[in-house]
Amino acid sequence: MTFPDTVPHDLPPGGDDHAADDTPHPLHRRLKSFVKRAGRTTDGQARAFAELGPLFLIPYKPEPLDLTAAFGGRAAPTVLEIGFGMGEATAHIATVRPETNFLCCEVHEPGVGALLKRIGEQSITNIRICAHDAVDVLDHMLLPDTLAGVHVFFPDPWHKKRHNKRRLIQPEFVKKLAAHLRPGGYIHCATDWQPYAEQMLKVLAAEPLLRNTAEGYAPKPEYRPLTKFENRGIKLGHGVWDLVFQRA
């Protein structure tokens, strides 16, 4: 299965060093041509596309999405996840929070296939995937004041200072996310890069619709698992920072 060209939630580190130093994150641009991350879809992922795609993939349409209908008639609080990688954490969270619906945006085709495969293997029913630019989904498919939460886990940190403008978490984007939360809804971000954590904290704290649920960084919520890469980093002495802000 091949997706139409679209904007990835994060390009691989160093993936476009030829770009100008002040180039913003792809989701903050409005272009007519887009970049897709490379990657090979395995046979198992391809089978998951064919067998489970019709049930769990939500096609992008520039019109409001009926969330209850999208989840098979199930009305439940909905959390938007932006960029789930290979879906390991997403599948775990959906399993330990069966009372919540998860709408997940990711355009990396092998990652979408991997999550579909996990859905089949683990008999998960409360996930739907929209393989499209999350900004378009927010702007055209999701109404304001509807989301119970937003998850943004380990977005590309763009380590070099001159590349910081390419980071996903920026004031305009956070404002958009906050406007889509219902009162009491939350934004949960996590990163293993301290300078990005500091930026996230500053940007989230500056959004008037949000309040921090902790004094600075939050304890890791129980629902977010430690991935194998995170465990490896912790063993090497690397830190991980969680931020949980709530809409007033």
The helix tally amounts to 8
- Assembly state (oligomeric): single chain
* Regions with little confidence, pLDDT below 50 for 5+ residues: 1-20, 29-36
Q: What best-fitting shape do the alpha-carbon axes yield?
A: globular
What is the helical fraction, as a range of percent? 25-40%
Structural class of the helices, strands and pairings?
A: alpha/beta
Instruction: Profile the largest sheet.
Output: 7 strands, mixed
Could you tell me how far the N terminus lies from the C terminus, measured between alpha carbons in angstroms?
A: 42 Å
Content of β-strand? 15-25%
What is the succession of H and E elements?
HHEHEHEHEHEHEHE
Strand order of the largest sheet: 3-2-1-4-5-7-6
Summarize the structure.
By secondary structure, the protein is an alpha/beta fold. The chain has helices at residues 43-56, 67-70, 88-96, 109-122, 134-140, 171-180, 194-206, 228-235, and strands spanning 78-82, 101-105, 127-130, 147-153, 181-191, 210-212, 241-247.
Structure notes:
With 248 residues, the chain is α/β, with parallel strands linked by helices. Helix content is 32%, strand content 17%. The protein is built from 8 helices and 7 strands, in the order ααβαβαβαβαβαβαβ. It has helices at residues 43-56, 67-70, 88-96, 109-122, 134-140, 171-180, 194-206, 228-235, and strands at 78-82, 101-105, 127-130, 147-153, 181-191, 210-212, 241-247. α4 (109-122) links the parallel β2 (101-105) and β3. α1 (43-56) packs across α4 (109-122).
